[in-house]
Write a structure and sequence with these properties.
The complex is a heterodimer of chains A (497) and B (80). Chain A has 497 residues and is α/β, with parallel strands linked by helices. Chain B is an all-alpha fold and 80 residues long. Chain B contains four helices and no strands. Chain B has one domain (3-79): ACP-like (Non-ribosomal Peptide Synthetase Peptidyl Carrier Protein, Chain A, Orthogonal Bundle), CATH 1.10.1200.10. In chain B, α1 (3-17) packs across α2 and α1 (3-17) packs across α4 (68-79). The chains are: A alpha/beta (497), B mainly alpha (80).
């Protein structure tokens, strides 16, 4: 079924159950009216294939705008309402978006006179871009991942098959911000299974999240493992009635073995727990693993299985040093992903696109940078990273990206951001700064300056000052030496997190 | 117990949980204003507040406060 067909079917369905950020039901008529008003506005003011930046809060208007873009063949480009203006301007310059739908624009569309029926839209090309998600870049500039209509339609077909027991009687809680492609899994469930939809306003509070599950009768959550892990802490779990939960899909960062044990113990065997893996560059998730409770099948060597690919996904493992394909089970290599879910490229950045895509055996693959291995059944296990990009609070951050911003601050001679694994936040970030001669720098001052140019999860946890950063034999800053020198300090800090 | 009493004791709790001896509380302070106030420390904070004021919040009570002022109101209502 095509995306437009799914949207039209949902809007016409008595199963349309949407709620605002306070949990109040949005009248279906009001939603349809708003959807059609935005659709007419887009058809009149944005060319087919034009980009529409949607900068609205976590509430149903953003959902209406996203669906209107998808239905009318305009490219949906979500922006964070709390993002620094500097980042917005970078994305504006990079994407050259045609229209910004923010709160005033939304109010204007709803309040303005009806714009009447525009010219009929042309056929929607499956190869056209459906959405662009901006992720962290390595040179200080965000990069826009472009996903086609065909790829998302393939993903939705998979949801139809993999979650047949999910349906209109389910209540989904959207935890992910619209700028995180995990939100497109939530939208996908809406379009695929016509679930009831609620927004979380927890903002990091495990108590609030647990209360929302209880109050709304939530049956489905997809989130990063840490968010669900927090609800399992005794201080929260002991007060909460989570008996409504039926489906947990955890992805976006490492899913610890201990957390799966905790979920099984505290939620019982009736909850379907799924691990999902995949970069933004390959349409949300490429691999899914439904845990059965069989330790031999669920994990290997303490690492949870990331599962089998979505039909249409092709993949291979490559020795990062020699470039040869690895076929034998349990041998580690860099995971390459291709096939139906592969991105079209980075928006207006053919050079960066070319750097991360590779041709092998006549097919194109995305170099994930993830270290992985397969088992005999062809399921994959993710064991680490090959580069400086890593997860922090579920978001992907690039250490070189962070350094490039800190480097530009007054008084900074040079710097290097170090990352130490920390279960509760994925990684603890410590930036070592060499101040310019005669300059006094302080951590609160640095953080305050970074807050205007970086998103919150990119800002380091701590700063340390060093009179002269060590170099390696090539004359480059030695990450290895710094990691060892500051490891004791980091370990103490992590223990007290 | 006065609101001032609550603020004094709550400030002590915050300083211990967030390891910041200079931390000062105002009603408008939220998680975004305090370094290290993430999900895990939020749980620690609630447990520490309960220990300090010898009370236990229901999920509904503790899920609602949006800032320190709301939290102080809750404490006063609970133990005042």
């Amino acid at each position: 079924m095509q995306i437009l067909d799914r949207i039209e079917k949902l809007l016409a369905s008595p199963n349309l159950r949407l709620h605002d950020q306070e949990g109040a039901r949005v009248p279906s008529g009001a939603f349809r009216q708003a959807f059609h008003a935005v659709s007419r506005h887009l058809r009149r003011h944005v060319p087919l294939g034009g980009k529409v930046a949607v900068r609205l809060g976590q509430d149903w208007p953003a959902l209406a705008c996203a669906m209107a873009c998808m239905a009318t063949g305009r490219v949906y480009l979500p922006l964070g309402p709390d993002w620094p203006e500097h980042r917005i301007e970078q994305i504006r310059a990079s994407s050259r978006f045609d229209l910004l739908l923010d709160a005033p624009a939304w109010q204007g569309i709803l309040a303005g006179p009806s714009e009447g029926e525009p010219d009929p839209a042309g056929p929607l090309d499956p190869e056209a871009t459906l959405y662009i998600i901006y992720t962290s870049g390595s040179t200080g500039e965000p990069k826009g991942v472009m996903i086609s209509r065909r790829s998302y339609a393939c993903f939705l077909r998979f949801l139809d098959q993999f979650f047949p027991r999910v349906g209109p009687g389910d209540n989904l809680l959207q935890v992910a911000r619209f700028t995180f492609d995990m939100a497109l899994l939530d939208l996908g469930l809406l379009l695929s299974r016509q679930v009831g939809h609620f927004f979380s306003a927890a903002n990091g509070s495990a108590f609030r999240l647990a209360l929302e599950i209880e109050d709304y009768g939530i049956t489905w959550i997809d989130a990063v493992p840490n968010q669900v892990g927090m609800i399992m802490e005794d201080g929260v779990r002991s007060r909460a009635d989570l008996s409504s939960l039926r489906h947990l899909v955890l992805g976006g960062s490492r899913f610890p073995w201990q957390l799966l044990q905790s979920l099984r113990a505290k939620l019982g065997p009736g909850v379907d727990v799924v691990n999902a893996y995949g970069p933004t560059e390959t349409t949300i998730y490429t691999h899914f693993k439904r845990f059965t409770g069989d330790p031999a099948g669920d994990a290997h060597d303490g690492t949870l299985c990331a599962g089998s690919p979505v039909p249409g996904v092709t993949w291979t493992l490559v020795d990062p040093l020699r470039g040869r394909e690895i076929r034998e089970p349990y041998a580690r290599g860099e995971l390459l992903l291709g096939g139906e879910l592969l991105m079209q490229g980075y928006c207006n950045d053919p050079e960066r696109t070319a750097r991360c895509l590779v041709r092998m055996g006549g097919a194109t693959y995305y170099r994930t940078g993830d270290l992985a291995y397969r088992n005999e059944a062809g399921e994959i296990f993710i064991v680490g990273r090959t580069d400086e990009t890593l997860k922090r609070r579920g978001y992907r951050v690039n250490l070189l990206d962070i350094d490039s911003y800190i480097q530009r601050l007054p008084g900074v001679q040079q710097c290097m951001t170090l990352a130490y694994p920390a279960d509760s936040i994925d990684h603890y970030l410590l930036t070592v700064v060499q101040p310019q001669s005669g300059h006094d720098l302080d951590p609160p001052g640095l953080k305050s300056q970074l807050a205007s140019v970086l998103v919150e999860y990119q800002i380091p946890d701590a700063f340390a000052f060093h009179p002269g950063l060590p170099l390696n034999s090539s004359g480059k800053l030695s990450r290895k030496a710094l990691m060892e020198e500051f490891r004791p300090l980091a370990e103490v800090a992590i223990r007290t997190l | 117990m006065t609101r001032g009493d609550v603020q004094t004791r709550l400030t002590r709790v915050f300083r211990e949980v967030f390891r910041n001896g200079d931390l000062e509380l105002q009603d408008s302070v939220t998680a975004k204003d305090v370094a290290g106030w993430d999900s895990l420390n939020h749980v620690k904070l609630v447990l520490a507040v309960e220990a300090e004021f010898d009370c236990r919040f229901t999920l509904r009570e503790i899920g609602r406060p949006q800032n320190v002022g709301d939290l102080m109101d809750l404490i006063l209502k609970k133990v005042g």
